[in-house]
């Protein structure tokens, strides 16, 4: 007989941005040795998925192998739990309502008034139960987005409250992440915000079994007792969520306070944490963040530089390289919108930089600045990594300055009113007639064939790889012969299709680009090869 599925529900209180996704992922990491863990994220917004949202508002759009555009927390889940997540594991109120309205039109509720309770809460529960069942999950982690008290998350809270009776109290537990501030002018940690946010949960009929308090100093005995007493939890179940240099320290910190044991006590599913693989890697990152063996300065030239969350997976991929190359990567953000005035500024901006990343992007804001940056690093032999849009711009730069096509541009620029262009980057044929925006790009994992004898072949050490994509445009096949004749090498092609997937420039220490997003499949134990070799080249450049 299959064991009864177990559930852990993770909520957040007091503030947003406390790291609920990473806390959930860390819990998953700690329990994943013997258990099949399935993370579900419940978002309160009415978009079907975050695919059409601006990353400045919502952080990076993470792309799954199955093509799902999902919340950035799925990046943490995949990196920490070592699983391949699925699009349907990201619930949104948009999806829930869409499904309910479709059922209503079909007549599934005939004769009934369709209501928040029970219809919306039933729909939420059935999504969660069905996923747990289909995946044969031993443990389903249900992370509820937002902060308790937000109107948007109330229906999810009501659904998980009902679940407690349905699945049995021994099969579900509640973990609440809160904030324990030390107000300026005081030396004391304060529990009141936690008490108040637990009260909000209590009003919804929920009681946390574990409270994780985000803090700048380990929670002492006194504050743990106080929280235990006012919030009805065991004192051992009040855990410090101390600020860290590297997020990969978090599971280790939780474990120091016996988190997995406390979960086991309640749910009876002990799966002793496996910390051995990460231990030396985390130690290496920590060491290099305090006493770096070497510091490598990487500039990221993007549009959403105001919010680091927009590039969360890129930052993580760089951390993965730090662990393996025994160095510290210092990233600087270059806002190319202000840069379109001349190379003087450019030289200043890139003065101490040993590597440049031009990440994925859309539209033309800052584009000429990026093209100038790419020209500069190409000519000055500074390592360069172009990701998706970044690779497309490297091709535009090469077409303009080496192939002599002055009007070379992205087809995408026409949507922003630029005319008279030569589209060296053009629509993917399948995209020409697409008019709807949601989930219509070329999305998800595709196989790539790597040409033998190229730098890409050396880097990937494989003739076929699989990577994730999110794009509408490609290198225009009409211009490939000319670009190749002038020296660019297209070293990766889509399996079975004529789409350029990897670009490189021979004779340069490192000038590579991928139409895919290498950052999405990088992990602490297995850094993305395009990043690893890029950072290695940057470290060699800094030593030369
Ligand atoms: N805007 C480009 C395209 O759609 C690049 C997308 C990206 O960088 N993810 O092809």
Automatic annotation (TrEMBL):
It comes from the Bacteria. Residues 307-536 form the Glutamine amidotransferase domain. The chain crosses the membrane at residues 7-31. One of its GO terms (molecular function) is CTP synthase activity. Signal peptide: none annotated. Pfam families: CTP_synth_N, GATase. CTP binds at residues 16, 150-152, 190-195, 226. Residues 1-269 are annotated as: Amidoligase domain. Belongs to the CTP synthase family. Homotetramer. This is CTP synthase. It comes from candidate division CSSED10-310 bacterium. The gene is pyrG.
């Amino acid at each position: 007989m299959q064991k009864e599925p177990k559930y852990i529900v993770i909520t957040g209180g007091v503030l947003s941005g406390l790291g609920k996704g990473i806390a959930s992922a860390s819990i998953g990491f700690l329990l994943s040795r013997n258990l099949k863990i399935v993370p579900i994220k419940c978002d309160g917004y009415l978009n079907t998925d975050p695919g059409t949202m601006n990353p400045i508002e919502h952080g990076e759009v993470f792309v799954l192998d199955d093509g799902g555009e999902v919340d950035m927390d799925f990046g943490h889940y995949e990196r920490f739990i070592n699983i391949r997540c699925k699009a349907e594991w990201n619930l949104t109120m948009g999806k829930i309502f869409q499904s309910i309205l479709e059922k209503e039109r079909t007549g599934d509720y005939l004769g009934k008034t369709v209501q928040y309770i029970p219809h919306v809460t039933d729909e939420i529960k059935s999504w969660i139960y069905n996923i747990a069942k289909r995946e044969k999950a031993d443990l389903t982690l249900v992370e509820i987005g937002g902060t308790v008290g937000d109107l948007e998350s109330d229906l999810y809270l009501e659904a998980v409250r009902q679940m407690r009776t349905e699945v049995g109290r021994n099969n579900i537990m509640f973990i609440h992440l809160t904030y324990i501030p030390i107000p300026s002018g005081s030396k004391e940690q304060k529990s009141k915000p936690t008490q108040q946010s637990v009260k909000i949960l209590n009003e919804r009929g929920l009681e946390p079994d574990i409270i994780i308090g985000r803090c700048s100093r380990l929670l002492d005995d006194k504050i743990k007792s106080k929280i235990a007493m006012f919030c009805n939890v065991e004192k051992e179940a009040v855990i410090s969520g101390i600020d860290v240099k590297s997020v990969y320290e978090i599971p280790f910190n939780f474990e120091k306070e016996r988190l997995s044991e406390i979960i086991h006590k309640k749910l009876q599913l002990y799966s002793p944490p496996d910390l051995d693989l990460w231990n030396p890697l985390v130690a290496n990152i920590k060491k290099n963040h305090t006493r770096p063996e070497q510091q490598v300065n990487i500039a990221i030239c993007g549009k959403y530089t105001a919010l680091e969350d927009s590039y969360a997976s890129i930052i993580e991929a760089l951390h993965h390289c730090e662990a393996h190359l025994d160095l510290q990567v210092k990233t600087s953000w270059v806002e190319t919108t202000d840069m379109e005035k001349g190379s003087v500024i450019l030289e200043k901006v890139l003065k101490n930089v040993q590597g440049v990343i031009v990440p994925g992007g859309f539209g033309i804001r800052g584009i000429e600045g990026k093209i100038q940056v790419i020209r500069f690093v190409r000519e000055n032999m500074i390592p360069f990594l172009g990701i998706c849009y970044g690779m497309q711009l490297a091709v535009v730069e090469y077409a303009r300055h080496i192939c002599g096509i002055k009007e070379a541009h992205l087809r995408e620029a026409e949507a922003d009113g630029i005319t008279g262009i030569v589209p060296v980057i053009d629509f993917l044929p399948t995209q020409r007639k697409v008019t709807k925006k949601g989930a219509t790009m070329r999305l998800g994992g595709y196989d790539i064939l790597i040409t033998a004898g190229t730098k890409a072949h050396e880097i990937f050490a494989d003739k076929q790889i699989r990577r994730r994509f999110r794009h509408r445009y490609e290198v225009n096949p009409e211009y490939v012969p000319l670009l190749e004749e002038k020296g660019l090498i297209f070293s990766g092609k889509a399996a079975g299709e004529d789409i350029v997937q990897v670009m490189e420039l021979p004779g340069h220490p490192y000038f590579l680009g991928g139409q895919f997003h290498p950052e999405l499949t990088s992990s602490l134990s297995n850094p993305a090869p395009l990043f690893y070799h890029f950072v290695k080249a940057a470290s060699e450049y800094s030593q030369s």
